[in-house]
Design a protein that fits this description.
Length: about 180
């Protein structure tokens, strides 16, 4: 018998190649075992594999989507994200965190200009390359507030500064999500 792996000549009754050690085809339709038995070949249908993989992927996508859709950041976290986006000049995050419903920025162009101006003012006041090291967000009680708006006092320390800076920011709840209210 000739080995299918290396081409070496082996005796007809050998179960393994004497040259490379690979199993020889014994004609039983399976893989040879050292004790002379044969493991029958089982062909797993390709369709079953694809269906199983598709079900796993679909379950992962649905589960991830439900998790992401149900996680809504708390107002304090929205404020932190807003200031970090300002210091990092993250225009996309700022756009997603802001609500322009009560401002005169009624077009995408005006909203873009508003955000650019906010970034410029923040960067000019705090130093061009500064990054927020620490941030403390405290809700300011307001008797006139309704449950869909909140006011926060924000204190943050920038790199290279000895004293923290302080600002106030208002949030509005729109469609069950807190956003920074553009003034």
């Amino acid at each position: 018998m000739i080995c299918k792996q290396c081409g070496a000549q082996n005796s007809d009754d050998s179960r393994f190649c004497a040259e490379c050690g690979s199993p020889e085809d014994t004609g039983g339709g399976g893989n040879p075992m050292p004790d002379g038995g044969v493991i029958p070949k089982r062909k797993v249908p390709t369709r079953e594999i694809w269906i199983t993989l598709a079900c796993i992927a679909a379950g992962f996508i649905v589960g991830s989507s439900l998790l992401v859709l149900n996680i809504k950041p708390k107002p304090e976290k929205v404020v932190e994200n807003y200031y970090n986006a300002l210091s990092g000049i993250d225009y996309t995050t700022l756009t997603n965190l802001m609500d322009f419903s009560r401002s005169d920025a009624d077009t995408a162009e005006k909203q873009r200009d508003y955000i650019i101006l906010k970034i410029a003012i923040f960067r000019f006041a705090e130093a061009e390359t500064a990054v927020i090291e620490e941030i403390d967000v405290t809700e300011v009680p307001d008797e006139d507030e309704d449950e869909d708006t909140k006011l926060f006092q924000v204190e943050y320390l920038m790199t290279g500064r000895d004293k923290p800076s302080s600002n106030k920011v208002a949030l509005i709840k729109t469609q069950d999500v807190w956003k920074v209210l553009a003034d």
